[in-house]
Amino acid sequence: MLLSFVTLLDDVLLHLFAILPLSDVLHVRQTCKRMHILTKLRTVWCDKFLLEVLSKNLPIPGDLLPFEELSGDDLEWRTRQALLLDRGWRVRTLNDPVSLTLSPPKEGATQVILLPGGHGAVTVHPHSALLWLIEPTGKSKYSVKQSAEWNFPVAGCQVVRDSAYSDHIAIGWMEGPAARVVVLSVGPGHPFQLLGQSKAVNGTLIGLHDNFVLMNVVESTGDVGTKGIALIDWKSNDGGVAILESRPEFAKYLGFTFYESHIIVLWEAHLGIFPMPSSIPAQSTTLVKPSQIYALAHHVQSPVGFSLCRPRQLPGTPYPGSSSEDNGYSCISVIAGCNERIWGVSNNITRSILFPVDKDRTMFRLAKIPTQVEEECSAMSIGSSGRGVWMENGNVRQCTPREILGSGTQFKTVDFDDYGKPLWRISRSRSEGSCLDFDDGLGRIATVSGNDIEIVDLVGVEKV
């Protein structure tokens, strides 16, 4: 007697679903009520998510929630979103992008910040910051609406996002005796909720990472007698400051990133590795000297990007992706514009690979791999996975993680693709003064050019 597919036990069917291609599982779902129920089970999408997303080291869409808290519907959406974006990214034929135009009632924006998880964005204006909520309303359809406004106490405040991927932002103003840095939540249901604040030192707000606010101290004062990058613990707010030492020969500050237990700071002429302080003594200033300093062969300039070329992992995932160790090296790519002529080409991107030689002693090495980009790069945003976007003359183009040989060692680093057809073209033909942000998990691009603010979703899959 021959058995039909529908007579198989549930356990057998679930095993089959685990090895079937995702498209086949979705087709089976349409056959009957029983298959619809079985293909919705969390165990099916746990298997798919682990095999199709994590094992392939694809960027993870959505919030970085603990794995055990994710429902079957959520895992299905993340799996489908990641595969659709990956397929389109590799073959360069993405679905018709969905463009959202933000129309603030006030003056033009100077910055746009995409929020983790794809819930919304913050636009920064001369006198305020606006919070926008983005909600899916169907396949390739979204609604966007202004949710809240935070008015600056003085014009031209600086706004930065938490580089630890929380839903926090910091806003700083440096004028007058009431100079402050405030940390706000912009998560769902908490529009501009005040979390904490600290007294600002004489400098520019450049970053927020977990409990640390970072400021670029450009002038010595009575409170801070050394120039450099100031770290302030906004949660304790006890008056302690740690200064990452800077020197005149380092030239102008360009950017920073956190790497394991270190802080990497890039200047025009040097790159410094600093140990991250575990705590800062109250009511005192602590000078942190670099553990290693690299003099750059060529001076660099903005725009700047950093990437581990390794997707962020969900807390509590059953196993990490295979890219957690690339041939024994945990690497980071440092990409910046070059303000000197290399090989006779004026508009170049210079790229370096930073990796630890001896993890026990936390010794680092730098491998320099120049990359030619014929057009001038005016803005750049690169995710931790190595996927990113860059802008030239109003065209938004993609960059992708690639294996490359440098200094006799195989690395995974960011490579710049020039395929003729850009991912997107901003409304204005000129990109001077433009800024760019990118969510490598969702494939969402945000651009500001003049008074035009656009958010582009490259996939636009319906959330189940």
TrEMBL record:
Domain of life of the organism encoding this protein: Eukaryota
Pfam families for the chain: F-box
Key words, A-Z: Signal
Start and end residues of each F-box domain: 10-46
InterPro entries referenced in this protein's UniProt entry, alphabetically: F-box-like_dom_sf, F-box_dom
Signal peptide, first to last residue: 1-18
Protein name per Swiss-Prot or TrEMBL: F-box domain-containing protein
Organism of this sequence: Meripilus lineatus
Lineage, top ranks: Eukaryota, Fungi, Dikarya, Basidiomycota, Agaricomycotina
